[in-house]
Each structure stands twice: as structure tokens, then as C-alpha cells.
Write a structure and sequence with these properties.
Blueprint lengths: L3 H9 L10 E6 L6 E7 L7 E6 L28 E8 L8 E5 L6 E2 L7 E2 L10 H10 L8 E4 L15 H14 L4 E4 L3 E2 L12 E5 L6 H13 L3 E4 L33
Parallel strand pairs: 8-9, 9-12
Antiparallel strand pairs: 1-2, 3-4, 4-5, 4-7, 6-7, 10-11
Helix pairs in contact: 3-4
Amino acid sequence: MLTAHDIYLFREGTHGRLYQRMGCHLVRNAGGGAASGASFAVWAPNAARISVVGEFNGWESQRIRCSRARRLRRVGTLRSGGRARADLQVPGDFAHAESAVDKADPYAFFAEVAPATGSRVWALDRDWNDGAWMKARARRNALDAPMSIYELHLGSWRRGDDNRLPSYKDIALELAGYVRDMGFTHIELMPLTEHPFYGSWGYQTTGYFAPTSRYGAPQDLMYLIEVLHQHDIGVILDWVPSHFPADSHGLAMFDGTYLYEHATEAGISP
């Protein structure tokens, strides 16, 4: 849950791990056992009311009033893999009428496959097996180290006759072997952060902490990166916050105001 120190660092602009506090996170039982539910925190200071809606309550908005501390009371039990959204009642048109809008969790680690827009409750647990690479990473990424980068859009690489999208897991060994055999030291993956329009090649992001579910779950991407590391290939992930889509479930006009984007990006003069 958000602590007073988290809120202090957030307001100061120095919180380096806000993704661990904001959004939806599974709550573990004592001793680190199975999750008993989930906590949800969202930054929407201009919203009149906020509800968490999902499978756990039949996607029914309960219009939970949001305090200035932005605390949400419990509305049900979210479990691993469950789908949820934040339902916000936000400032409306110039007549100041309030309207409701469903928003994906900005800090979600996993999303439904587009065109669905819900966020999935997910934990990033994994036992990594790339210790040798991690031990040598600083030397391999040094400014004076030899570097040759292979850039690709994952979903366009070696499509089969059926034109089916690859999965993170299915492509891992073939891609790693090809990149190594061609003499590259690193691979640069065009944006994998969640995006609604596939034709954007990932450059119109709605979820900066969620690898696109089109190719599998977050742990599947971890497997891909692990296999690349095991083949002595470094991984660079494009992160593109400058192309800001206006899809209603994304960050645009999140709480009825330009909370994340600047007004000039929407074509409105300051």
C-alpha cells in the first residue's frame, strides 16, 4: 500500500519504484504464501469518484468516492489473472457535467489482448537462469566494448505461411541462434510496451509497464530475454513515451484533465 513516504517521494518527483506501489498488486498471506487478494492505488486527483471494476464484481461500477489521499476502500477480491479497470467519474464538457470513463491500470504488468482493454492482475515472480550474463554485463556494455546491434519488430520476424504472430517463447531459440551466428552482440526490440493499434509497431503506448500480451505473458518475455542472455546476446528495449495515443482507456485525459500529457500535445495552446 502507499505509505506517507511514498506519497512524499511521488510529490517530490523522485520515487524511483512507483510501479511497485501504484496500480494493482497481489497481497500475499503471512509468510509469503498464496495471494489473498489485491490492493489498488491510482493517481487521479481531479476525478470526482473512482471505482475498481472487473470480473470480481461483474464489471459493475460502484462509484467509490475518492479522497484527496486517493484511498480506495475494498470493493471485492481480485485474484491472480483476474481482469480489472479503473472506472473514473471525471469532469465532463464545458457545461461541467461529469461523465464516467473506464481506464486501464496505468501501472499494470499485463493486459488483455487487444482489442480488449482490461488490465490483468499479475505477479512478476520468476527464477532467472542468466547469472553468467549478468555477471559480465557491465563489461559487455562498456563504452569501449565492441557492439553490433540487430534491431527488429518482434511480430514481423520470420512470419510463417499462416502469418500467425510469434510468441515470446516460440521465437526465443531461433532468434537467439540467428543473432549470435550473424555476429551481433546485442538485439534491440522495437517497442513491446502495450499498445492498442498494432499498425503503430508499438510506438503508441498505453501501458508502459506491461509487455504486449499479443506474444504471451510477462514471464514468456522473461524467458526470451533469458535465452538471449544465455547465447551472450544483450537486450535493448525501445521505450517510447513521446507518441501519445488518445484511446479512451489509456493515459489521455486520464482524470478529465491533461494529467499525463501536456495540452499542446492535444493541439491546444497553453
